[in-house]
Amino acid sequence: MEPPAFHPPSCDEAVISTNDDASYCKRSAVKLGYWKDDFLGYFVRSPERKAPEINRGYFARVKGIEMCIEKFFKKTGDKCQIINLGCGFDTLYWRLREMGHMITNFVELDFPTVTARKCYQIKRNKILLEKIHVEDGEVRLSPTDLHSSNYHIVGVDLRNIDEVALKLQQSEIDFTVPTIFLAECVLVYIESQNCHNLLKWFGSNFKSAVFVNYEQVNMNDRFGEVMLNNLRQRGCSLAGVESCISLDTQISRFLNCSWHGARAWDMVQIYNSIPAPERSRVERIEMLDEAELLTQLFQHYCISVAWIGELFQDIEITVEKRLSSLNID
Ligand SMILES: C[S@@+](CC[C@H](N)C(=O)[O-])C[C@H]1O[C@@H](n2cnc3c(N)ncnc32)[C@H](O)[C@@H]1O
Question: What is the best residue among 26, 39, 65, 189 to mutate for testing ligand 1's pocket, by most ligand atoms within 8 Å of CB?
Fold first, then answer.
């Protein structure tokens, strides 16, 4: 039996399909041992092996976000909420559970087409299901949404704030609990005005929050132009690209929406902040065909962090100083 089909407008279909690309790339890297993820294989099967630069890029992306989350856990312990925007088939909830974390609440949002597929896999898989904490044994289900006591996944268009507010309410989000928002390659697909409204709504409703955003940067140079053209040729409108021009535009996107502060680092800096033994380990997995290509890729992605309230304002990363920008020789 297949999960129920939902038919989004064709302009959204290309955006939705970016989840398949991301999931296949992550699975390729996991299979080679870049990082451990015992759960991704339940959502994505038999990937083709991706180029070493792609695998290393995805490693930096996943590791960079994980490092941010670890920093926040040091402040909040498990008494926090995570809201994963445009979650795709991300397995963070299960990876955290495996590490022994039981956070107050974890909510995932994506288009109904994507959440229906994710719900379907969760429902039919005992290992995924048993990690979902259920106090009274009850999991509430619809074709696109799943609610348990501390894990929720809901189908919603992030451009529709009323719907987002309703879905967060159904997911028992508490505006007073410290909250980590995650968006991994998501905001770039959302029209600037809609994104502004969404960030503003979050900023004015949550008392203590941090936003971790991974996406493109330096999009107005030649390499950026080629990246954008490739995506556009696949029918993917990059409606929010104007915030991806520089680290400054990434930061000001949040400050213009009344977030209290923001910082941003390109992936060269993030990669160099990963502990040296971990970098050495992954650098031994595969030889890079084109070291320069990886550097360029890293220069065109970034992680920005924004905050509301005081809890998270001292976030910093420690970038190791090196002669070459990347340890890829
Ligand atoms: C590149 S994928 C990334 C998936 C996941 N965050 C990851 O990194 O593995 C982008 C995701 O954002 C979702 N997305 C983009 N625009 C959205 C919107 N307006 N409403 C809901 N989801 C959206 C897509 O459906 C897709 O799953």
Answer: 189
pLDDT on residue 323: 38
20 C-alpha vs ligand 1 centroid, how far in Å?
10
Catalogue all structural domains in the chain, each as residue range(s) with its CATH number: 11-308 (3.40.50.150)
Flag whether 283 is marked binding.
no
Q: Is 78 annotated as a binding residue?
A: no
- 239 alpha carbon – ligand 1 mean position (Å): 13
Whether 31 is in the pocket of ligand 1, judged by its Cβ within 6 Å, is no
Any known ligand binding at 158? yes
In the chain, which stretches have pLDDT less than 70? 1-10, 133-135, 137, 318-329
Measured from the CB, is residue 111 less than 6 Å from ligand 1?
yes
- pLDDT tens, 7-40? 566 678 999 999 999 999 999 999 999 999 999 9
The candidate with the shortest Cα–Cα distance to 123, out of 92, 102, 106, 145, is 145
Q: What is the pLDDT of residues 176-216, one digit of tens each?
A: 999 999 999 999 999 999 999 999 999 999 999 999 999 99
